[in-house]
Recover the amino acids of this structure.
């Protein structure tokens, strides 16, 4: 009997526990569990298929006679390549003159296409959903599955969310096969292993697990398998479902998996000894394990001169903490610790705050929320309108608010500076984490001043050092500290100096590079 | 009880302590403050203490309404006065009578009026040291008038009296015409064996506030003051000096402008004071070494190795005379502001312990030997006075140096 879940049930603690321990079975969604054999009568087979795919207007049933034998082709019209189906499937079938019409004979005839035969009705349903053409022959038990699928999708484009000036520009798209090709063309080795599995009992999305054998720690792959096997869900729409279900600390504001839309970055991760997940229909890859400092390193660091990476990385680290702490520090300095502000600045701040009817915390919360609203509006609206809204919000509303003595110019500067600082962070996950964490810091600063910021900062640091991503400490190589890894933390050492993979990923083969340090040729040799 | 409950209780307790310890108690919004920039302390005729404070007026300071640099200079601050029997009482009453709380953490100057200083500033020192609101980098300044006059004088182009006073003293320190008399430095000197601190001195003139040398203190009492011209000679006893100027009258009788002076810029000097103890007799040997360059030559002067030597000797003599004059004055005032007692204490603490109580009687009779040597540097392209090349016949100038300059 189907259980009906109502909100009233969640009032009872025992009911909640009962639901947690005995979750509802979701397998009734699953079209792939029917292991019944395909009968030899075409009409019966079709009846089963039509029963399963009832009220599916896009499923086509093409009836034809091949040498007088009734044959039916079943497919979803929008998922197949019409030209290929016409050229390589329909034409050979209409011209079929090879004697008896059997599935093996048809398979020989359609040798230009990928074909496979099956005897299970469940495989037929999966094949139809996957965009294959199912050929059923009257009097033949089983079916022929012909691969002529062509899913609609866009072409490969440049990376929009992680742009670089130098280096490759390609980004992943929604097609898993294309994304795998983008990785395979960069990693031309048999050691790149790709394991695929179906995810989502309803969506049947293909998920690929990638790693480089001989580099990755085997237990990491095993751990990934275990975590993926635990997933029981009806549908996977985006990579975020997988991320949340394999996360180490689900209630932490920090994400312990990393997403990127850049194939080059994915390949770099694989070569570091990490594993990646690619999901069909998602233009990003998930990489694990992840460390905090990797969120502050950009692909550009590796494509430019190593000396330019040093100031840029230090700038990003400074900007990360600035974006997190700047509003709260401003509140603490203006509400509690005015003695720490240089005298001319304090006089200026006092003059700015003169006539503002709100305490600094209200001003800050208001401005910060307005900034977040503008940011959200800019994202949700179409791009052209979004830019206008941002400009209108920032310039006109900000200026008007200052002139109306609702907020002080200093507060506008601080909130804007924190916002700009957050834009320097390459990882969108860290940006969003900061957006969440800014508020508790502001509130604690308004209650306790610098003491509160330090106290909450300590709690944050303790939390950060306690996190692990697939067994790797999140704050590595800072905590636990590893001096050799400093070559790719705050600085980016030249490639000839980075001869080992990061130790914290525990690769089985640490050596990455044996190139000697370049030197100018001696005079004798010239 | 389960572990989970323990964790919740501990977390709640911690949060309670965190918020309960200091939550909002010290909250004071920036616009609820009266930022005090300078405090003047005077003693009135009836022996009461008058405190004058310079408080920022946020409406007229350089705020957003007036735009950057558009504040009203004359109205950037307000001056409030209060009288009390003690300094702390006057400050306390003032705090009660002025809207908004007085905020002393940004006080940068404390001005002592002459009358108060003569009767001893040590009355204020404990209060200023003990009170956590004051910073120890606030500048102590003494004036021969009243502090309230000084704090109402013009300070153009500065906005605030405190900033102007600090700026004047810091400029003087760079040219060795003033001393660094921040509270910290002053207290260090005050607690030395010599017990004779010095303080920057400012005066009121028609044009506004002007620097006027340094004030000499014996214990906490203001004794005398040295003018800005005398300060370099004084400072050569106690510290390294830099960028001082000295003009010596010309001795060239061939020129009609023989009354003009030859100016030297003394780039730097370094002094060693060495006590020489021979039985009961204690003498002090003051060794000064330095470097100088010629700022202006006397008309018709030709720099040669001989003249350079002569000028160096002349300069050494002049510097020595200046130092002797200052030291004689200090002996006359019986104020060991040159800290000879500190030198003796460091060199021979046991002897100092024997002499400590008699030092006041001892100091006026101390003999000092000087050894001043300043090297003249040959900087610059102009080695000789330009009128050397002048001849009534209009002869061309000599090519090259021809031995005119070493």
């Amino acid at each position: 009997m189907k259980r009906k879940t109502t909100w009233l049930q969640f009032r009872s603690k025992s009911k909640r526990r009962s639901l947690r321990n005995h979750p509802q079975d979701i397998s009734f969604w699953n079209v792939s569990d029917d292991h019944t054999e395909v009968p030899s009568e075409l009409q019966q087979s079709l009846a089963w298929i039509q029963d399963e795919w009832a009220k599916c207007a896009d499923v086509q049933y093409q009836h034809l006679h091949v040498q007088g034998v009734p044959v039916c082709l079943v497919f979803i019209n929008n998922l197949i390549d019409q030209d290929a189906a016409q050229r390589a499937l329909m034409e050979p079938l209409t011209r079929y003159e090879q004697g008896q019409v059997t599935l093996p004979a048809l398979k020989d005839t359609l040798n230009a296409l990928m074909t496979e035969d099956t005897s299970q009705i469940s495989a037929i349903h999966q094949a139809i959903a996957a965009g294959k053409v199912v050929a059923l022959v009257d009097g033949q038990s089983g079916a022929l599955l012909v691969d002529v699928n062509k899913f609609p999708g866009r072409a490969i484009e440049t990376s929009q969310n992680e742009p670089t000036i130098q280096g490759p520009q390609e980004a992943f798209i929604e097609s898993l096969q294309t994304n795998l090709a983008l990785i395979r063309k960069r990693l031309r080795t048999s050691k790149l292993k790709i394991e695929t599995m179906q995810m989502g009992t309803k969506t049947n999305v293909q998920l690929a697990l990638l790693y480089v054998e001989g580099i990755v720690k085997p237990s990491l792959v095993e751990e990934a398998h275990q975590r993926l096997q635990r997933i029981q869900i009806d549908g996977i729409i985006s990579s975020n479902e997988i991320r949340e279900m394999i996360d180490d600390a689900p209630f932490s504001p920090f994400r312990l998996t990393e997403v990127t839309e850049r194939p080059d970055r994915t390949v770099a991760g694989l070569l570091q000894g990490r594993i990646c997940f690619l999901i069909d229909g998602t233009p990003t890859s998930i990489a694990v394990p992840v460390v905090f400092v990797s969120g502050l390193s950009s692909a550009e660091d590796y494509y430019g001169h190593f000396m330019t990476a040093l100031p840029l990385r230090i700038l990003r680290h400074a900007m990360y903490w600035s974006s997190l702490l700047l509003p709260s520090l401003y509140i603490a300095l203006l509400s509690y610790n005015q003695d720490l502000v240089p005298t001319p600045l304090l006089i200026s701040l006092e003059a700015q705050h003169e006539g503002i009817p709100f305490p600094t915390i209200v001003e800050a919360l208001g401005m910060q929320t307005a900034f977040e609203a503008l940011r959200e509006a800019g994202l949700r609206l179409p791009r052209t309108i979004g830019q206008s809204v941002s400009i209108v919000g920032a310039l006109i509303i900000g200026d008007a608010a200052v002139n109306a003595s609702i907020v002080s110019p200093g507060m506008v500067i601080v909130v804007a500076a924190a916002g700009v600082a957050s834009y320097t962070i390459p990882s969108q996950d860290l940006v969003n984490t900061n957006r969440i964490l800014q508020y508790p810091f502001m509130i604690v600063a308004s209650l306790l001043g610098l003491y509160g910021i330090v106290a909450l900062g300590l709690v944050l640091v303790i939390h950060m050092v306690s996190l692990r991503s697939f067994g790797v400490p999140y704050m590595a190589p800072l905590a636990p500290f590893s001096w050799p890894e400093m070559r790719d933390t705050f600085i980016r050492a030249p490639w000839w100096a980075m001869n080992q993979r990061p130790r914290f990923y525990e690769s089985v083969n640490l050596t990455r590079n044996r190139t000697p340090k370049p030197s100018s040729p001696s005079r004798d040799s010239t | 009880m389960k572990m989970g409950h323990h964790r919740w209780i501990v977390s709640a307790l911690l949060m309670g302590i965190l918020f309960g310890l200091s939550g909002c108690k010290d909250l004071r919004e920036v616009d609820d403050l009266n930022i005090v920039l300078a405090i003047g302390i005077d003693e009135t005729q009836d022996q009461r203490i008058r405190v004058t404070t310079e408080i920022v007026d946020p409406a007229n300071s350089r705020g957003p309404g007036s735009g950057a640099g558009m504040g009203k200079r004359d109205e950037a601050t307000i001056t409030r006065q209060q009288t009390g029997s003690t300094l702390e009482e006057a400050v306390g009453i003032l705090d009660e009578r002025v809207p908004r709380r007085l905020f002393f953490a940004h006080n940068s100057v404390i001005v002592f009026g002459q009358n108060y200083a003569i009767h001893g500033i040590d009355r204020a020192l404990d209060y200023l040291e003990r009170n956590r609101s004051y910073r120890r980098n606030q500048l102590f300044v003494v004036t021969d008038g009243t502090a309230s006059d000084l704090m109402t004088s013009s300070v153009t182009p500065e906005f605030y009296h405190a900033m102007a006073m600090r700026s004047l003293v810091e400029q003087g320190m760079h040219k060795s015409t003033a001393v660094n008399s921040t509270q910290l430095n002053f207290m260090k000197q005050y607690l030395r064996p010599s017990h004779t601190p010095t303080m920057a001195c400012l005066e009121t003139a028609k044009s506004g506030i002007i620097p006027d040398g340094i004030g000499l203190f014996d214990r906490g009492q203001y004794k005398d003051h040295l003018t800005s011209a005398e300060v370099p000679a004084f400072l050569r006893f106690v510290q390294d000096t830099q960028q001082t100027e000295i003009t010596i009258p010309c001795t060239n009788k061939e020129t009609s402008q023989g009354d003009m002076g030859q100016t030297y810029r003394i780039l730097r000097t370094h002094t060693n004071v060495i006590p020489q103890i021979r039985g009961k007799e204690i003498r002090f040997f003051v060794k000064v070494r330095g470097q100088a360059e010629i700022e202006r030559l006397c008309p018709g002067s030709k720099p040669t190795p001989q003249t350079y030597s002569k000028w160096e000797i002349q300069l050494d003599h002049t510097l020595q005379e200046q130092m002797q004059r200052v030291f004689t004055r200090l002996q006359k005032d019986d104020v060991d502001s040159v800290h000879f007692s500190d030198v003796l204490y460091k060199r021979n603490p046991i002897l100092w312990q024997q002499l400590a109580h008699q030092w006041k009687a001892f100091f006026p009779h101390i003999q000092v030997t000087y050894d001043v040597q300043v090297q003249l540097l040959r900087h610059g392209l102009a080695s000789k006075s330009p009128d050397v090349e002048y001849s009534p016949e209009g002869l061309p100038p000599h090519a090259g140096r021809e031995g005119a300059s070493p």
